[in-house]
């Protein structure tokens, strides 16, 4: 039903579904995954690596991550032969940026007023701006960010730490000029007056808006112990942070505090470069709350085989210096670790402190509460990304926080559509991935509060799939070296179907023995 075909100067993905032929680009525009290895379901193909979805009739991106769509090629059937007509350029680029409007009313605005103001220039903010332009919005759009850079691929800060800002930019500078998306860098909003519709910046500048998106993300937590302000102690927040850590860590002793996604990815990246890597964690197994104890232990073993030393069930009590620079990390267990560099990855808090007096509904943990259309309790004010609590259809519209890259993209799109009064509700399956030592764990769903994990495959060989269940229902799935099963399950969940625990126990074995996963779509026995 899907076949990669070579057209001489490039390849296309030829698809046959319900008797109709379609041809689109064969690579996912996000990171170049071969879509022929993905999942075809009801008019769209889902990427096997990170879950982005594309309409097979138009090539348009329908779920994320990534910004661009697929090129669509003309298909003609003559005498039982299939002919594909494609431009050489499209075959070579394998991506298509949707048509966008430009601003036609800049002269109507002073510097201190805009129609749409977006606070934050991550994935949510950028996708919101692009979606507005794709939908024909031709008024002024201003994005502002505390960062010194234009929007960039933030997951690479811990997965590819020596990447320079221009290498991980989501769009080139010319893109923003072409489509009249203004980006104010190194500009921090300190207050929002929702009655007057004015945002106040740290330097005193004020900007009036008509519609507002708050997409400020999270701020990393810091240590509370003595010496936390010392030189060579880092939170990875910017490309400069990541680059500096790599430079300082080469052939030196590194201590990482926190076996979070960030902490583990940094440990994996530095393991071959540093003299030693030590990881300090309060739990007894990394990723226990997210992936469960058995998967966590398998991952821990992989790290230990790559020279990473774990110090579990303890905390940092003190950072010691010598001549103003970090020298040792003292643990509450009494252990003293040599350290030239310390990276802190102990979680994050929503960057919403500036909204406390605004009247925007913020919960006790600082998250902005929104509805299915990403609207706050204030008309015209929307919120998206890591700093929000939103209703997740997969979990019976329970309000959840999903601080991951794919979800931020989708939030931004839904917010933009509803700024334009489309009345579109969010409907997506959370999808994330982590990369360590050249291997990836893929994950779909929302497993918070799971009460059992059904594992098939071989954890020691790092080839497995784990189904996370709550009562009798599968709420999430993770896999390593078994694509595209996570994308397959994501499609089933996206269709509103329920996978029962008993189905997994009885049938998943077949998937491993034969590669047949048709049972998941209800077509197999």
List keywords for this structure.
4 domains; oxidoreductase activity, acting on NAD(P)H; electron transport; oxidoreductase; mitochondrion; 35 strands; single chain; Rieske_2Fe-2S_sf; alpha/beta; 525 residues; FAD/NAD(P)-binding domain; five-stranded parallel beta sheet
Explain what the structure shows.
This protein has 525 residues and is α/β, with parallel strands linked by helices. The protein has 4 domains: 2-93, Rieske [2Fe-2S] iron-sulphur domain (Rieske Iron-sulfur Protein, 3-layer Sandwich), CATH 2.102.10.10; 113-219 and 350-420, 3-Layer(bba) Sandwich (FAD/NAD(P)-binding domain), CATH 3.50.50.60; 233-346, FAD/NAD(P)-binding domain (3-Layer(bba) Sandwich), CATH 3.50.50; 438-521, Enolase-like, domain 1 (2-Layer Sandwich). The protein has 11 helices and 35 strands. The strands form 9 sheets. It has a 5-stranded antiparallel sheet with strand order 1-2-3-8-9. Strands 12-11-10-16-28 form a 5-stranded parallel sheet. A 5-stranded parallel sheet has the order 18-25-19-20-21. The longest helix has 15 residues, at 405-419. The two termini are 20 Å apart. Its main location: mitochondrion. Induces apoptosis through a caspase dependent pathway. Reduces mitochondrial membrane potential.
